[in-house]
Amino acid sequence: MLTVDYDRLDVRPGTTVLDLGCGEGRHAFEAHRRGARVVALDRGAAEVATTKRWLGAIAAAGESPAGARYEVVRGDLLALPLPDASVDRVIAAEVLEHVPDDATALAEIARVLRPGGTVAVTVPRYGPERVCWALSDAYHANEGGHVRIYRGHVLRARLAAAGLVPGAQHHAHALHAPFWWLRCAVGVDREPAAVRAYHRLLVWDLTRRPWPTRVAERLLDPVLGKSLVVYAQKAAGTPAPGRERERTAV
């Protein structure tokens, strides 16, 4: 399930892409499939191991495009193990809402991004996320949970404060918003029949991509899309705010 529009982000063969908070690698896999040089980074050992295993399986099966490369590392978003201006694209999908010091995180993104490079930041959309918080504390108030809800203009302002120029934005995953409302209403640790049935629908949609659900989600995304995606560019010749630092290349 991809949240970022790779055509809008302009990921092409030879592009260096940093996938921050890669989780189990969903965005890293697509960048690799497009022939990019991918650095997938996460704090979790299990997530790093899973992403590395699957990328390795793609390469072992001979399915990696010519020129595609990958590296999977554990790292801290607040102190990225990369030199200044070393990547062309950054993906930070559903990450910033977990980070108390998002200003430092955004400054690090701006630091490692090359002038003219683009970052795609995705966060839970304010309206659907506010409903989840109202229905369930367990949804967000846990270790590693969501520490804030972003309004669109706030996220754009914080990107600008980090030295990035916010551009286009869109919403994604409208079919997922009611699913999480239902889970929060019944208890996020419970899976009654209704939750299991809805989950099967989402899996069917993900694996089969049937046209009725694709059309429905495209129409509903502007209203119910659970994720907000904002693209921002580092202006050519504009350094990231703060002192520049050299870090070991991955």
TrEMBL record:
Name the residues that span the membrane. Answer: none
Keyword presence, Metal-binding: no
Pfam family name, one: Methyltransf_11
Domain Methyltransferase type as annotated: residue spans: 18-120
Q: Where is the signal peptide?
A: none
Q: Name one GO biological process term.
A: methylation
Which PANTHER family does the entry mention?
A: GERANYL DIPHOSPHATE 2-C-METHYLTRANSFERASE, ZGC:194242
For this entry, the protein name equals: Methyltransferase domain-containing protein
Q: Which organism is it from?
A: Geodermatophilus pulveris
